[in-house]
């Protein structure tokens, strides 16, 4: 069998890295490369076990089994001679090597592979997978009693993933491989990850359409169709492999870092200022300090985020500890003339949890919150309000709000409710933003007066001294 690899694809056959991300742009030959390397390695290394994953079963069948360049077509000569058998989702080689064709649509499905010994893990379209699935499957990558030829010494077990930017996994994949203009790694660089990140040799190998001459030869108009996607972010992501372009995000075409991220400045004491919080313990909490300018622009100018060292992992701080941190941050604010009044937090902190509410613990620490009542369609209405403000250039974020910038632009639409973000993603700063925007409204009849959503001002407080206001 003659399998031809283009120069960029051939680099992966020789790379010493054991955890490789290949791709970026569409048409770079990612899927074919995975099939080709799986066949080459299985034919060369007796007893090798290769697991190839796509998130959805239908995509696995259409992309890797069927078609003129799928496994059936590629292996047809060996199938005819009996050297290879394709039985359902398993490809068996004459030397005992196997390729398992797998999918993992739901996070719970990962446990089906708990007993697997994966010598080569191939993950096609990695950004369609959650980090939870990937980390678990990586623990199954191990190898015993397999004689590896000298030319492949030290290269197994290994992981090869292919992906374009975008989708639900964009954020964690970008962070893991240090991608984008603020990334910590250079293309082609090989580095050892720490034990808590798997301890493998990681590498990013970028590939564009021009690195796959076969595509240009077979379909010369493919690039034109990429440029006709209708979205500048999608074109940058799919044609250029730009990891700073968030393709398919909820705020695609709405959020523009050049317009909406601003350099920090001193917030005038004459502006309305307030706090908002989305609480979290095992998941991150997000506290944002907000200001409303005299001309009606909302600024998120300070943040405190319960980052536990990994995306969507909380710092597990007690409410009293977070209250102390807030008080420390605000030590000099009163002297500067800032008065925080209509401070709003999610309603969950007002629920009884044992002996006291989380809100009461904050109150005892000197930080009082008003409850954000979550009514029907409040998520959708709040999301639309944020979109409207961004479109009108009336919502700005200080460049120092790193976790807002890291998470909010990457949020994808909820697949079952497109008017909202996907709540399975790291949406804590987003929710805090909705609360903040809903808490303070500018009165169009009196530009100098700001209103809460249930103005006039409420006069009733709960047992903790907290007001209840409604936020969209």
What does this structure look like?
This protein is of the alpha/beta class and 472 residues long. The chain has two domains: 7-240, P-loop containing nucleotide triphosphate hydrolases (Rossmann fold, 3-Layer(aba) Sandwich); 257-470, Nucleotidyltransferase, domain 5, CATH 3.30.420. Helices cover 28% and strands 21% of the residues. It has helices at residues 7-14, 30-44, 57-65, 71-74, 76-80, 131-139, 170-176, 213-218, 222-227, 232-240, 257-260, 319-329, 358-364, 378-391, 402-407, 428-439; strands spanning 19-24, 49-54, 84-87, 90-93, 98-103, 120-124, 158-163, 190-192, 201-207, 261-262, 272-278, 286-292, 298-305, 344-346, 352-353, 356-357, 370-373, 395-398, 413-414, 417-421, 441-442, 450-451, 468-470. It has a nine-stranded mixed beta sheet with strand order 3-4-5-2-6-7-1-9-8. An eight-stranded mixed beta sheet has the order 10-18-13-12-11-14-17-23. Strand 6 (120-124), helix 6 and strand 7 (158-163) form a beta-alpha-beta unit. Helix 12 packs across helix 13 and helix 14 crosses helix 16 (428-439). Mean pLDDT is 89; it is low at 443-472.
